[in-house]
Structure to design on (804 residues):
C-alpha cells in the first residue's frame, strides 16, 4: 500500500507529460478520469484481459482517494509547490527508482495471477504480466481519445519505450520461471530484475537519456531473426515515419517541457 | 416495460441528431446497430463496467423488437409521418419528461446494482450510476466510429451536456443515499430528482435553451476548488477550442436541423 | 485442429493485404500482435460478446505457436518462398475453400454456444454467430489503430464485404435452425451452407471478382423494406462516399498488389 502510493507519486511527471494543464482547467472531471487511467491503467487492462470488471480496482476507496489527492495537489496546489517538489531531481530519482520496484512486483503478480487462471497458458501469462507492467503506456492512446486528442504516431506498440520493452522481457522471464524453465527462485529473479530496472531508470533519468540498454542485443537478435539491418537498428526503429520529425519520446519530452514552462509562468 | 418503450420513443430526436439519414439508406445494418447502441447504450456500458457480457440486454427479445420497430418507423415510414408525429412539440415535451423519469430510475437501479456487487465500492457505484444515466452520450463517440465519422470535439467527457452532468450529480446523490450519508429515503430522493430533471428538461426543450441550471453553482465551486475564473464559466467551458466556432451542442442542433430539412424535402 | 491450421494458412493473403511489410521490419511485436488478431479475431470478439476473457483462446499454446510459425514464415522466409507458395493460385483456391469450411463450422459453433448461455436470446445467437464468422473483418479497424493507421472508410459495418454479409445471413439461418423455425437438421444446413460458401468464394477468387451473389435478392429486399432505389443497388452501396474514388475492397486489393510488388522486388 505505501509502495503503491509512492508509485502514484512518481507517476506525476507522466501526468505532466500527457494530461495537459488546459484540460484540468476546462474539465476537472475529464482530468481526474485521465489521472485515474494513468494511476490504475495496469489494473484496468489486466482485469479486462482476464475477463473481469474493468473498474474492479476502484473498490479500494483509500487508493482512489490517495491518487485523487495527488492529482489535486499536482494540478491545483497554490504556487505550483507540489509539482516543483516532485520534479526536483533528487526527489524524482527516488520516486523513479521506487516506481520500478513497484513495476517488477506488478509483473510478477500479474504472471502469478494469470497462472492461477490458466495453468499452462504461457502466452496469457506473458500478456497479463506485460499489461500489468506497462499498462500506463498501453492505455495512453485511449486516454488521448478521452481528451479529444489523437496522435497515432505516439503508439507504444509500434514504438516501444524502455519501460514497455523491459516489461515485456520481464513478463517473459517471470513466465519462464513460473513454468520452471529458469533455474532460479522467484525471489532471486524479482531482486535481480528490480535492481536492473531501478538502476537503468535512475541512470536514464539523471542523464535525460532515452537510449535503451537493450539496443545492442536487440539489434543482433532482430538481425538474426527478422533480417533487420545491423547497427543502425535504433535509427531504423524511430526514423521511418519521416513525416514525424522527432521520435515520439522526444515529442513527449517537448510536451512536458512546454507544460512545465506554462506551469512555471503561471506560478510566477 | 411500458416506460422503457416510451423512453425509446423519446430517443427519436437523438437518432435524428446523430444517426444520419444517409446511413439508413446505404447500410440498414449499420443504421440498426447505431439505433440499438442509442437505445441500450446505458445497459451495454453498465454491463461492461461490471464485467458482464456487453450484449446481455439483447436477451430481451421483445424490447429489441420494439426498439427495432421504432427505428424502422422513424427512418422508413411513408411520408415521414412517424418522425413528424414525435417531433411535434407537445408530444415531444411529454416524451422528454418521461425520458427523464426513466433516466432517474436507471441511475438509482445502477447504483443499487453496483452496491450489491461491491458493498463499499462507492466510486464504482457512482461510475455505474453515471453510465446508466448517460450511457447514450458516452457511447456516441464509439457509435460515430461505426458510421465512419470521427469528431473528437463532440466529446461528452470534455464538454458535458446537461443530462450528462445531471446524471453524474444524480449518481453521486444516490450513492450518498445508499451509503446512508443523506438523511432521506430512496423514494423521496427519486421523486425529487425526477421532478427536478423532468421540469428542467421540459423547460429547456420548450425554450430551445442549452444553458445549464447548474451554471451558477458550478462556476463558484470550480472557482473555489480548481481556481477557474469566475462568472465567465460557461464561456470558458465552450470557447477555448477556438477552432470549433460553435459549441458541440449547437453543432448537434444544426446537424439535427439539417437532417430535418433533408427529411422534410424528401417527404414533399 | 488440422482444419484450424489450414484456416490460418489461408488467412495469409489477408495478412498481406493489411499487415504491411514495413511494420514487420520496424516492430516485430506489433506485426505479431496484428497477425494474432487476424488469426483469432473471431474467438476474441466472441469471448468479449459473451463476457469472457478476450485472450481466453491464447491458452491453446499449440494453436498460437502454429499461427506464429505461419506468421514468421510469411514475413521472414528467405527468398519470400512461403508467400509465393500460398499465393500460387491452385494452392490459394484450396485454402480459400477450406477457410469457408472452417467459417461455417465457426458460425454454427458460435450460435450453439450462445444458445447455451441464453436459451431464448435469438438476437444474441445471431450476433455471436456473426462475429464468429466475420471476426477478422470486424476487428480490422481496431487492428489498424495498433499499426497507427486510421482509415474509417474501410469500415466493414458500413461497407460489408461478401464474407461478412454471408456470415450475417448464415448466423440468421443457424439461429432459425436452433429455434426450430427451419425444417432442416443442423448437419444438412451446415453441408448446404458450406457448399454454397466454398463454391462462391472459389469462383470469386478465381475470377478476381468482388460482386456479391446476393446482389439481386438484396436489391429487391432493400427496395421493398427500406425504399432503396432498385437495380443500381450495388452502385448505391459503394459510390456515395464520392471522396473515396474506389470501393474499400478495391483499396485492399491495390494495397495487396502494392505489398506483393514490394515483396517481389525485395526478393529479386
Amino acid at each position: 500500500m505505501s509502495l503503491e502510493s509512492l508509485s502514484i507519486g512518481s507517476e506525476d511527471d507522466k501526468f505532466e507529460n500527457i494530461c495537459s494543464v488546459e484540460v484540468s482547467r476546462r474539465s476537472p472531471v475529464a482530468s481526474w478520469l485521465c489521472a485515474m487511467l494513468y494511476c490504475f491503467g495496469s489494473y484496468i487492462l489486466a482485469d479486462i484481459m482476464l475477463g473481469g470488471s474493468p473498474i474492479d480496482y476502484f473498490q479500494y476507496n483509500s487508493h482512489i482517494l490517495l491518487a485523487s489527492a495527488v492529482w489535486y495537489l499536482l494540478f491545483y496546489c497554490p504556487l505550483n509547490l507540489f509539482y516543483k517538489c516532485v520534479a526536483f531531481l533528487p526527489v524524482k530519482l527516488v520516486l523513479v527508482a521506487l516506481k520500478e520496484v513497484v513495476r517488477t512486483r506488478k509483473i510478477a503478480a500479474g504472471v502469478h495471477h494469470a497462472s492461477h487462471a490458466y495453468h499452462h497458458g504461457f502466452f496469457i501469462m506473458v500478456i497479463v504480466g506485460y499489461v500489468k507492467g506497462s499498462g500506463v503506456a498501453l492505455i495512453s492512446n485511449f486516454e488521448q481519445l478521452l481528451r479529444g486528442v489523437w496522435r497515432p504516431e505516439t503508439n507504444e506498440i509500434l514504438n516501444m519505450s524502455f519501460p514497455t520493452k523491459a516489461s515485456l522481457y520481464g513478463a517473459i522471464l517471470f513466465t519462464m520461471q513460473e513454468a520452471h524453465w529458469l533455474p532460479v527462485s522467484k525471489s532471486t529473479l524479482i531482486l535481480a530484475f528490480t535492481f536492473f530496472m531501478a538502476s537503468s531508470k535512475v541512470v536514464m533519468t539523471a542523464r535525460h537519456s532515452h537510449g535503451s540498454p537493450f539496443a545492442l542485443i536487440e539489434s543482433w537478435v532482430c538481425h538474426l531473426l527478422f533480417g533487420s539491418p545491423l547497427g543502425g537498428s535504433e535509427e531504423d526503429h524511430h526514423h521511418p515515419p519521416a513525416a514525424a520529425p522527432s521520435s515520439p519520446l522526444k515529442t513527449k519530452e517537448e510536451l512536458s517541457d512546454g507544460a512545465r514552462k506554462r506551469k512555471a509562468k503561471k506560478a510566477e
Observations:
- Residues 1-19, 232-268 of chain A have pLDDT under 50 and may be disordered.
- Residues 89-117 of chain A form the longest helix (29 residues).
